[in-house]
Design goal:
The mean pLDDT is about 95. Helix content is about 35%, strand content about 20%. Helix 1 runs parallel beside helix 2. The protein has an eight-stranded parallel β-barrel, surrounded by six helices. Strands 6-5-8 form a three-stranded antiparallel sheet, with no helix packed on it. The protein has eight helices and eleven strands. The protein has one domain: TIM Barrel (Alpha-Beta Barrel). The longest helix has 18 residues, at about 30-45. The radius of gyration is 17 Å and the shape is globular. The protein is of the alpha/beta class and about 260 residues long.
Length: about 260
């Protein structure tokens, strides 16, 4: 499954506020949808190439299946963003509901999903999460869906139950588990990614699309610019780096310019 992006693409994250039924929810669906659309417009106006929509506010996350309204509203948002902005759109349903994300993406024509733990097993704050690559790929086959799978290797906010060389994990995630894109990130949201980890993943699977998953700033961008095919940026695009505030058009422009130059 090939996802066509420009070189050094900027992939902005749309962090949804807590959805109804989540403990921190204070907003109705209509306001959440409008907030997401405004962030998408900001990404478009700033020159971003793609976006990922995720139910970031729904902490504490469920480790597998979410309530049915979650993929429904995220799918609706994805559809409206595609219609209004033309951005490449991805879906990430936290913590690891790849099946719901894939179903929503296939229904609305989204381009990719992000899967935090696609293969192997990890200890997380939700408990032990096991990858479901077999179920995800078989479901995609049954849907006949052209949705790429962007899979994290050694995902943030988690520790593998058995530590293995990152090169081995990268090779297996791509060749055996069937991921289309590999993502390398830091230890947590906004945390800088280890440059050596990126180099290891690139050397292990040189033909695999490689994305940076976290921690990009205008100050460190020169360390990463030539190592990755795309860059996921979330925290740094928000006004004053505050995840509760909307995205900032000027900041998006600064990142896009820095990645190009």
């Amino acid at each position: 499954m090939v996802l066509s992006l420009v070189p050094r693409a900027l992939v902005g994250v749309i962090h949804l506020p807590a959805l109804p039924t989540a403990p921190a929810n204070t907003m109705p669906f209509a306001d959440i949808i409008e907030r997401a659309l405004q962030d998408a417009r900001t990404l478009k106006d700033g020159g971003a190439d793609a976006c990922i929509i995720e139910n970031f506010g729904d902490t504490p996350f469920r480790k597998d299946r979410v309530d049915p309204h979650v993929p429904t509203v995220i799918g609706l948002i994805a559809h409206q963003i595609r219609q209004e902005t033309g951005l490449i759109v991805g879906i990430n349903i936290l913590r690891n509901d790849a099946r719901s994300a894939l179903g929503a993406a296939a229904a609305v024509g989204a381009d990719f999903i992000r899967v935090n733990i696609h293969s192997g097993a990890a200890l997380t704050d939700q408990g032990v999460i096991e990858g479901q690559a077999d179920r995800t790929l078989r479901y995609r086959q049954a849907l006949n869906a052209s949705v790429a799978i962007a899979a994290d290797i050694d995902v943030k906010h988690a520790r593998a139950l058995v530590r293995r060389p990152l090169s081995e994990v990268a090779q297996e995630t791509y060749s055996r588990a069937g991921a289309d894109i590999l993502i390398v990130s830091g230890t947590g949201t906004g945390s800088a990614t280890n440059v050596e980890d990126l180099k290891t993943a690139r050397e292990a699977v040189p033909h695999a699309p490689l994305w940076l998953g976290s921690g990009l700033t205008l100050e460190n961008i020169s360390h990463y610019r030539n190592l990755c095919d795309a860059f996921i940026v979330g925290t740094a695009l928000h006004q004053r780096r505050d995840l509760s505030k909307p995205l900032d058009t000027d900041q998006v422009k600064r990142f896009k310019d820095a990645l190009k130059n």
